[in-house]
Automatic annotation (TrEMBL), chain A:
Residue ranges occupied by any ABC transmembrane type-1 domain in the UniProt entry: 89-306
rRNA-binding listed as a keyword: no
Upper lineage: Bacteria, Pseudomonadati, Pseudomonadota, Alphaproteobacteria, Hyphomicrobiales
Source species of the chain: Ancylobacter amanitiformis
InterPro entries named among the record's database cross-references: MetI-like, MetI-like_sf
Family statement drawn from the similarity comment of this UniProt entry: Belongs to the binding-protein-dependent transport system permease family. CysTW subfamily.
Cell compartment(s), UniProt: Cell membrane
Protein name: Spermidine/putrescine transport system permease protein
Residue intervals passing through the bilayer: 27-54, 93-114, 126-148, 154-174, 186-209, 229-251, 258-276, 288-306
TrEMBL record, chain B:
UniProt superkingdom: Bacteria
All copies of domain ABC transporter, residue ranges: 40-270
Keyword ATP-binding assigned: yes
Keywords: ATP-binding, Nucleotide-binding, Transport
Gene Ontology molecular functions: ATP binding
Protein name listed in UniProt: Spermidine/putrescine transport system ATP-binding protein
Length: 315, 373
């Protein structure tokens, strides 16, 4: 049979095919069908309840009866600036900033290697290595770190074997970052957070670096820039959106966490613990809502600053 | 009003006074035999990727001030040769010298050559002005001076006043000009162009061809131009090197490469050609050597016309006719001979498939080749 005489039947015209006809002709309908369920979930259930909760911050609590006084007031919000509360805010933001910085510094070389040098097999191994810690329980990882950081733990033992026991002691003797042992110090808390959130920094940075065309790096070298300068003037600015995306994760995850500081770290509270306590044991929902506003405002400020410095110019 | 483009050219010439004393023959477009110190010299250069020999023993000498085209199909090694000059690749064997100085082991940022990339490779996070000034910035030129130089360079490529735009806001042709300005503003000794016109549409491409050519003439700069478009190579270059499978198969002025192709590959890649075996060439009055025959040299004889002097006449049947604007391409199966393609003026209508025709083939049109390969 020759091709010119070949007679193919039309595909069977079923209900699904006719539905496809309708959706192809009316693209808007398809968009609507795809968006309505998530918008209902995100808009009403999630954002709605979030705003209802945050809205409580303009109420106050009656000191004697412990009931919520439903009259608008700024008293609760101003309470955040009381030294005891403001301390919590400052401490948490500082910890989050250090964790973010450490994550960025550790993640960049790893991401750079994976994006620019790793072959397909190595890259598959890289993804596995980065993602695997995320598969295990969050609590198990924290308790694992508690053991590593404990006075008789692996880190102390290693430091001792390497003759760095003195250095560890000296570090722990420092004010603020030190403490009786790593497992009850800010240092230990920051290390644990850095470990926990590192994948959230590596992946976006790697994705951003992978989008930097090799030709751009060659062009910079061609125009006379030595590798260090190429890194500063081309690679880093182009990877910045990825770093900022990673920082959003590491920063906000640290700001909101209340479990790590409870297991590892000092007795001083962080934001997450304050929210947990205020709305739980203390029953002061307005103050908990006020505390919850802080991470949102801090993130907004962070993104504004990032935009000002041109971090998104390459987008 | 001073013309910034002219200023730039003068300034450029002053800084490169050695280049202003170009031999006159270059200005007259004549072929340039390699002078004492070539701008670029390859000696037995080999570069392989795994088992693929991308560049397989290339020797060449490009004269200062020459517009040199590297022509070949994709994968023929021409772009790798360009990257070897730029320093993005290092040869596995052989030597490369730029203006007499070996560039062995020199990274790109230590070479006085600059590249215009195929995809332009403009920095998306910098405005057009900063893109052009990039090479000056990394050399530590002050803000004010580099802005002035960048403005001049942009004026030279007819993009005055575009400094504040982002590359994403420009058209393909404009990006191409920015890439050109960016490479020229740092005063390279050799400018490398990697298929710079490939992404432009036909009209713009023709415009840029003549602009590039006049820019090159005004600056007296060595251009090494990689292309797979034979028309582009023929119309712009002083000399063309035809690449195939990692080797140069022929180097010479465009006329020579077109009129006297050395091999079957050159004959068919540069323009189109009928390739005849030794016996067929002999039968048509040529030498007993494999020969090429350009379709436009074959004439279609009117029924009663007498053939011109020194031409062989063959009879045949028309197998195919296609209209190509200015010409018609006629494929003829000759009686007992090869199938030949002739291009005739499009006005010569009335040739139809199945017609019996007579072809006149001037003996001088048969070009013996070194080899049939």
């Amino acid at each position: 049979m020759s091709l010119s005489t070949l007679d193919l039947p039309d595909p069977h015209d079923g209900a699904l095919r006719r539905l496809s006809d309708l959706l192809v002709r009316r693209a808007r309908l398809l968009t609507l069908l795809l968006l309505v369920p998530p918008l209902l979930w995100l808009g009403l259930v999630y954002l709605g309840s979030l705003f209802v909760f945050l809205g409580q911050s303009i109420f106050s609590i009656d000191e004697f009866s412990g009931t919520i006084v439903r009259e608008p007031t700024t008293a609760t919000l101003l309470e955040l600036f009381r030294p005891a509360n403001f301390d919590i805010v400052q401490r948490t933001v500082a910890i989050a900033a250090v964790v973010t910085l450490l994550c960025a510094i550790i993640a960049f070389p790893i991401a750079y290697y994976a994006a620019r040098y790793a072959g397909p097999r190595v890259k598959a191994g890289f993804y596995l290595a980065v993602m695997m810690p995320l598969w295990s329980s969050y609590l198990v990882k924290i308790y694992g770190w508690k053991l590593l950081l404990a006075k008789e733990g692996a880190i102390g033992w290693f430091a001792g074997r390497l003759g760095l026991g003195g250095a560890l002691e000296a570090w722990l003797a420092l004010p603020l970052v030190g403490g009786p042992s790593l497992s009850v110090s800010y240092t230990g808390m920051v290390l644990t957070f850095t470990y926990l959130w590192l994948p959230f920094m590596i992946l976006p940075v790697q994705a951003a670096l992978e989008r930097v065309p090799a030709h751009l790096i060659e062009a910079a070298g061609d125009l006379g820039a030595a590798p260090g300068l190429v890194f500063r003037t081309v690679i880093l600015p182009l990877a910045m959106p990825g770093v900022v995306a990673g920082a959003i994760f590491t920063f906000s995850l640290t700001l909101g966490d209340y479990i790590v500081p409870q297991i590892i770290g000092t007795s001083a509270l962080v934001l997450g613990q304050a929210v947990y306590m205020q709305q739980g044991t203390a029953g002061n929902v307005p103050l908990a809502a006020a505390f919850s506003l802080v991470p949102i405002l801090v993130m907004a400020l962070f993104l504004t600053l990032a935009k000002r410095t041109g971090a998104f110019d390459a987008l | 009003m001073r013309d910034p483009a002219q200023d730039f050219a003068q300034d450029f010439a002053q800084r490169h006074s050695s280049l202003t004393t170009l031999p006159d023959r270059l200005a007259m477009h004549a072929p340039a035999p390699p002078p004492v110190t070539p701008a670029v010299r390859f000696a037995g250069v080999v570069r392989h990727f795994g088992t693929v020999r991308a560049v397989d023993g290339v020797d060449l000498a490009i004269a200062p001030g020459e517009f040199f085209a590297m022509l070949g199909p994709s994968g023929s090694g021409k772009t790798t040769c360009l990257r070897l000059i730029a320093g993005f690749e290092q040869p596995d064997a052989g030597h490369i010298a730029i203006f007499g100085e070996s560039v062995e082991g020199l990274p790109p940022y230590r070479r006085a050559v600059n590249t215009v990339f195929q995809d332009y490779a403009l920095f998306p996070h910098l405005c057009v002005g900063d893109n052009v000034a990039y090479g000056l910035r990394v050399r530590g030129v002050g803000r004010a001076e580099r802005d002035t130089l960048a403005r001049e360079a942009l004026a030279m490529v007819k993009l005055a006043g575009m400094e504040a735009r982002r590359p994403a806001q420009l058209s393909g042709g404009q990006r191409q000009r920015v890439a050109l300005a960016r490479a020229l503003v740092v005063r390279p000794k050799v400018l490398l162009l990697d298929e710079p016109l490939g992404a432009l549409d036909l009209k713009l491409r023709e415009e840029m061809q003549s602009e590039l050519k006049s820019l090159q003439r005004a600056l007296g700069l060595t251009f090494v131009f990689v292309t797979h478009d034979q028309g582009e190579a023929l119309s712009m270059a002083d000399r063309v090197a035809v690449f195939n499978e990692g080797r140069i198969v022929q180097v010479g002025p465009p006329e020579q490469v077109y009129e006297r192709p050395a091999t079957r590959f050159v004959a068919q890649f540069v323009g189109s050609a009928n390739v005849l075996g030794a016996a067929q060439a002999l039968a048509l009055g040529g030498a007993e050597r494999p020969s090429s025959l350009r379709p436009e040299k074959i004439a279609l004889l009117a029924p009663n016309a007498t053939p011109p002097m020194g031409a062989a006449v063959v009879e045949g049947i028309v197998e195919d006719v296609s209209y190509q604007g200015p010409v018609r391409r006629v494929a003829v199966r000759t009686s007992g001979g090869p199938s030949l393609v002739a291009t005739v003026p499009a006005s010569a209508s009335g040739v139809a498939i199945g017609d019996a025709v007579r072809l006149a083939i001037p003996r001088a049109a048969l070009q013996p080749m070194e080899s049939e390969g």
